[in-house]
Every structure is written in C-alpha cells, then in structure tokens.
Design brief:
alpha+beta; D-Maltodextrin-Binding Protein, domain 2; 3 domains; five-stranded mixed β-sheet
C-alpha cells in the first residue's frame, strides 16, 4: 500500500527549520547575524531594510531554485471540486504576504485577467495556519513556497492545482551578508560558499541519504525532500546568478513597492553581488561561467527496475520509494511503475512515494494527486492538471484517468500480457 496517515495524523504544524526572513533580517540589522538565507522576496526586503537604516546588505548567492518557477504552488483541500486556478474566481486564497509565493499568486491572478482586489479574496496566512484552515474548509485555496505545495499533498489533505512554472516566475532561495562583515572577513564569506558547494556535491551523489537526514533535522518527510533534491527534481541546487534569478530580485523589489511594503530606492544591480561566489567556484576548481549556461536538472542515471535496461527517454519516467529500501526504484514508463506498485502492494509492501513527471511542464509530481491519459499504445502520460490531461487525451485519442484507475489498468494490462 502507499504510505498514508490517519485523519488525526494528517496535519501537524510544520517544524521551524530556520527563522523566516523578517526575524533573520532583524537579527542581521542588530548585528546578531552576519549571514542569512531566505527567498527572493524576503531577501529583497532585507536589502530594503538595510537601505532604510543607512546600511547595506548584499545578496551573494543563489542556493536552490527554479528558473521556471517550480517550488511555489497553489493547493486546495483534497476533496475540493476545484481542479484549476480558473475555478477560484470569487474564492478565498490565503498566502504568506510579501513572500515569493505572494508574487507568484499576483502574477497568476493577473494572467487570468482578474483584479486581485475584486475577483479573488486574498488573505495573509502562514503555512502552519493554512494547513488546519484547508482541512476545516475555512479557505478554498492556499498559495505557498517550498516545500508546502508538495508537503501538504503528501500529508494527504491537499491537492496541488497550480505550479509556479505556469506563471513563468523564476524563484529561488539564497544567502545574504552584511556589507560590513563581507568587507572585514571576505575569506569567511567565501568559506561559507565553499561549504555550500560541497553540500551540493554530497546531495547530488546520495539524494536519498540526505533526504532522510533533512527529515531528521526538519521533520519534512524524506520523499518530499527527494521530490526537490533527487534526479530531475523540482528545483536545481545552483549557486550561479543566472539572468532569471537577477530578474527575480528585480521583480520582487518592484512588487514590494507595489504592495507598499517598501519605499526604498534599492536596485537589483547594486544589491546582487557575485564576487564571492565566483571566488568560491575558482577555489573549488569549478567554472562559474560554464555553470551560468547550465540549466540542466540533476540527471537521472538509472536502469529500469523491471527490465534492467538503461533509461534513456525521460518524458514518462516514474519512481517508487519502497519502505525499507535505501534507494528509489526507477522506471522507464509510468505503466511499468504502476504495475510494479500493484505487485508490491499485493506482497504487503508499503510504498512511501510514487513519482511521475508532467508531460507538458516537465515537472516532477506526486502520482496519487496527478491525472493521466492512456493512449492506444498502452502508454500512460502524467499531468498536474485535469484540464491538461483531458485536452491531451482528446487530441491523441487517449482515455482520461485518475490515479486509482491508471494504477489498476496498468496492473491489469501487465497481468493479461503474461
């Protein structure tokens, strides 16, 4: 069976992994912290706060992000009839205000042609409040940043209906340093970045192992961490200041002004500083300029768990993380993974997570809350959105299926072929 929790266990307040952006900024301003890590929006508020105080902070590196926008997302209650953002007109959507997900939500609403003050009711809500609110039906939807748009569905009480990639709004988390500290101890800033580079190397080599470690430290389940950090994950661990990330900083500054959260004259050009990360790359024997041009996700180098053949086509790949197994099983096809899932369930095994990939947006998904289309060749394609799956099915003479139907049909086809 797929790992699940009872209704009483489904929600628990997410642990505080570290302090959110505002407290970190306050401590940096009070000289209690020299380096802080946060997302693009709170990071820009950090820069603006320093500017207002007559001081300066520097955005020195990206740590992890998505030039496509994956990581931010919108979820609805698991049993909600809503399957797309277009169905949320007139509804209440909560979001942590002045966050990177707030920026995504405003951009998504604008793309619908809606007035954010008239066509939807947007309220501020932290994720630890939004979880119970989703369960109790007090809100129709919640927009949030890493990892909540995946964490809530994994815990069984929400479905993701919108991914930041649809808004084409790049998002990232990165690190800032006070200018005074960087001027006094530049070697320590570089050493911090060297440590981040080494951490990325370790995670890339053993993503399951470090996903488990992150769970122990943060309480965020390992399968959710793997969704981001594993091969073909939702985000890349990339320290280079790609143009999209520089633009994300510029956009966040402009949006914060629009929201009247700052009147600072801060500019992205004077705020983003890549001197230290370039030095760290050079000391580590890495080519920073080459990394700037590299947009590839962590590669999948695996053999199909059923056939043993190398996986070379990644459009319909899937994965199963079986309880008690240290590594995720990889499959060249969704139908292959689903048939093996049935075999494992029949043998009494528990599967911690089932992964598939959206055929259109090329993003990694949790299979139980995804949609599928079965074509005439017996191939299953996965989709985040029901509308996308339906349109693709109609255009390709395929059959629209939900997860349970797709899993059962795949298992039945394999059984009949034996």
């Amino acid at each position: 069976m797929i790992a699940a929790r009872s209704s009483l266990e489904r929600w628990r307040p997410p642990p505080i992994v570290d302090k959110p952006g505002a407290p970190i900024t306050n401590e940096m301003l009070a000289d209690k912290l020299d380096i802080g890590s946060m997302a693009d929006f709170p990071g820009s508020l950090n820069g603006a706060s320093f500017d207002k105080a007559g001081r300066k902070s520097l955005f020195i590196t990206v740590l992890q992000g998505s030039t496509l926008g994956s990581g931010n997302g919108i979820v609805v209650p698991r049993d909600s009839p809503v399957n797309s953002l277009a169905e949320l007109r007139g509804k209440t959507i909560s979001v942590p205000f002045a966050s990177t997900s707030h920026g995504m939500l405003l951009r998504a609403v604008k793309a619908q042609g809606w007035d954010p003050e008239k066509d939807v009711h947007i309220i501020t809500q932290a994720p630890e409040v939004a979880g119970p609110a989703l369960q109790s039906g007090k809100i129709e939807a919640h927009a949030d940043f890493v990892p909540f748009a995946e964490l809530f569905p994994y815990r069984g009480f929400a479905r993701k209906i919108y991914d930041g990639a649809q808004a084409e709004a790049p998002t990232f988390h990165g690190s800032l340093v006070t200018e005074s500290f960087s001027a006094r101890y530049p070697e320590l800033v570089v050493a911090f970045l060297r440590a981040a580079i080494e951490a990325d190397r370790l995670v890339a080599a053993e993503p399951e192992k470090y996903s488990e470690l992150i769970e122990k430290v943060t309480g965020v389940e390992a399968p959710v961490n793997y969704l981001f950090h594993g091969p073909l994950g939702l985000q890349t661990r990339d320290l280079s200041w790609k143009p999209e990330y520089r633009q994300a900083v510029k956009t966040s500054i402009e949006t914060l002004r629009l929201l009247k959260r700052t009147d600072s004259q801060l500019t992205a050009e004077g705020f983003v500083d890549d001197r230290f990360v370039r030095t760290a790359f050079r000391q580590a024997g890495l080519d920073y300029d080459a990394q700037l041009k590299n947009y590839e996700r962590s590669p999948l180098k695996a053999r199909d768990a059923l056939t043993g053949k190398p996986i070379t086509d990644f459009q319909r790949v899937a994965g199963l993380w079986v309880q008690g197994e240290p590594k995720v099983r990889h499959y060249a096809s969704v139908e292959g993974a689903f048939s093996d899932l049935r075999t494992l369930e029949a043998a009494g095994k528990t599967v911690r997570a089932v992964y598939v990939h959206d055929l259109i947006h090329r993003i990694k998904l949790l299979a139980p809350t995804s949609w599928y289309a079965l074509d005439g060749k017996g191939q299953l394609s996965a989709f985040l959105l029901k509308d996308d799956a339906s349109r693709w099915a109609q255009a390709n003479q395929a059959k629209l299926l939900d997860f349970a139907s797709a899993r059962d049909l795949a298992a039945a086809r394999v059984a009949s072929a034996r």
